[in-house]
Design goal:
The protein is of the alpha+beta class. The chain has helices at 2-9, 20-28, 46-54, 58-77, 88-91, 114-126, 133-140, 200-224, 229-237, 248-263, 269-280, 287-298, 362-365, 380-383, 387-397, 424-430, 459-474; strands spanning 13-17, 32-36, 80-87, 99-102, 146-149, 168-174, 180-184, 227-228, 310-316, 319-324, 333-336, 341-344, 357-358, 401-410, 416-422, 436-441, 449-455. It is globular.
Length: 475
């Protein structure tokens, strides 16, 4: 008993597991405490934990380890290069006159969110298939238009992600594996189609881009030759960008590549100057290049048996969807897209916001974007939080990834390579979900962007994918 009594006379040292508020209470009382951030495996979900165990036998672990190493090798060996431009119907596989591509996993017209519907209707008017929104809405609902995810056609699209047949697109080729990816040109900020705006201002800009900007850029690229996008992304990370929501440096680097070829073209000086001015006025120009560059990077990992690396993350304002390398490109795992937590423009609140939207989180899937926020401290002014939060998010992503990129490096982390190759099993084991920074669209079409912030994929996507892996590989 005396030894037990002695225990109460000694200084208290505490190790706290799990609930952080317990540690905070003791620390406020001046007690020495070490907090261990612990969560039960698979968040305490017995079914998910059981599926994890099925995939963690020695034999399965050996297969998964080898498969994920191969997936990481393909990601790191990727060489995304801008090779030219073309018209969507001419270059995107499977594109027809009645096809409209959209961001995110498959979705029907009836389930599309407001901004995606607005972008579809705007796209139909832009194509001359309708004259007014009412007519466009009727056509979209008629069954005559085939809707398909950009991702199922080697393409990506920011926010609503709508691609129509006559839209000009960038063409990116992964020189290491021979696959290509496509993306439209970025319209800039304000009232733009990708945020669901669909008035005459939007149509006038799109037609000018098609009739004037596209021919100048296409001709300049033909003269310039290929542009190594991997190099530009690596450089912009050293200059304060993260290549998703901050592209100021990357767009500047792109202008340096293009301004000489543009000025040497046999074209009216006014048109050349307008093209340069448009790119220069739009810091997001490079977003529509970083996205297909990362798409081209990730697509070659499909078809690696037993790989648990996440090959795709995307959202359409209704559903969030992921695909897994070892299960192939036709299997989607979806759940309701989450609300973005962030900063809103004056006059708007979360009540005005659409759910998480767009293909742009292909950047995070490949290990840049939100995964590299430590490289872009200024991003917190756009999405909220503190600089320390940006660093912590980047550090946390190493816990759920297969390796580090040898090209994309983060100066603030002593030039550590970005966390690369999201591992489904590590996400489920740790309870850490990938971090994504993103813009926020108004829930109704025609309004546009209302803010920006941070969001995660819904956990249920990963639980579904885990169950599918366990069934496919262990039963």
């Amino acid at each position: 008993m005396s030894k037990l009594n002695d225990l109460f006379t000694k200084e208290l040292h505490v190790v706290n597991l799990g609930i952080e508020s317990f540690a905070e209470d003791l620390a406020s009382q001046g007690k020495k405490i070490v907090h261990v951030s612990w969560k039960p495996v698979a968040g305490g979900d017995k079914v998910a934990a059981g599926n994890l165990r099925k995939l963690q036998t020695p034999a399965m672990q050996e297969k998964i380890k080898a498969a994920n190493a191969e997936a990481l090798r393909r990601i790191l060996d990727a060489q995304p290069v801008l090779v030219g431009m073309g018209i969507a119907r001419d270059v995107i596989p499977g594109m027809t006159e009645d096809t409209i591509l959209h961001a995110g996993p498959p979705v029907t017209w009836e389930r599309m969110c407001g901004p995606q519907r607005g972008a579809v209707m705007g796209g139909l008017i832009y194509e001359g298939r309708a004259k007014k929104l009412e007519e466009a809405e009727k056509l979209a609902a008629s069954g005559k238009i085939r809707f398909a995810p950009c991702h199922m056609h080697s393409a990506v699209g920011p926010m609503a992600g709508v691609v129509t047949p006559s839209m000009p697109v960038w063409i990116i080729e992964n020189k290491a594996f021979g696959n290509r990816a496509y993306c439209t040109m970025n319209e800039g900020l304000g009232k733009v189609l990708r945020f669901g705006a669909c008035d005459q201002e939007v149509f006038d800009r799109l037609h000018w881009m098609s009739a004037h900007l596209y021919p100048i850029l296409k001709a300049a690229l033909e003269q310039k030759g290929e542009i190594d996008l991997r190099l530009l992304v690596a450089q912009c990370l050293q200059m304060g960008d993260e290549a998703h929501n901050r592209n100021k440096a990357a767009t500047s680097l792109l202008i340096r590549e293009l301004v000489g070829p543009i000025m040497s073209l046999d074209a009216p000086n006014r048109e050349k100057a307008d093209a340069i001015a448009f790119i220069n006025s739009n810091d997001h120009t490079f977003l529509n290049l970083s996205m297909p560059a990362m798409k081209a990077t990730m697509d070659p990992i499909f078809g690696i048996p037993y790989s648990t690396i996440v090959a795709t993350m995307c959202r359409n304002g209704t559903d969030f969807g992921i695909r897994i390398a070892g299960l192939g490109p036709d299997q989607w795992f979806t759940a309701q897209a989450e609300m973005v937590q962030g900063l809103y423009f004056a006059g708007f609140t979360e009540e005005d916001a659409a759910r998480d939207l767009g293909d742009s989180c292909i950047t995070e899937t490949a290990g840049i974007g939100g995964f590299c926020m430590a490289a872009a401290p200024a991003i917190v002014q756009f999405v909220g939080g503190q600089v320390a939060d940006a660093v912590n998010y980047s550090l946390q992503m190493y816990e759920i990834t297969e390796g580090e990129n040898r090209i994309y490096k983060i100066p603030a982390l002593d030039f550590r390579g970005s966390a690369t190759g999201i591992d489904l099993l590590k996400v489920m084991q740790t309870g850490i979900r990938p971090i994504i920074n993103t813009g926020i669209a108004h829930k109704d079409y025609g309004v546009g962007q209302v803010g920006a912030g941070l969001v995660h994929p819904p956990e249920d996507c990963f639980k579904q994918a885990l169950a599918a892996c366990a069934k496919a590989w262990t039963e």
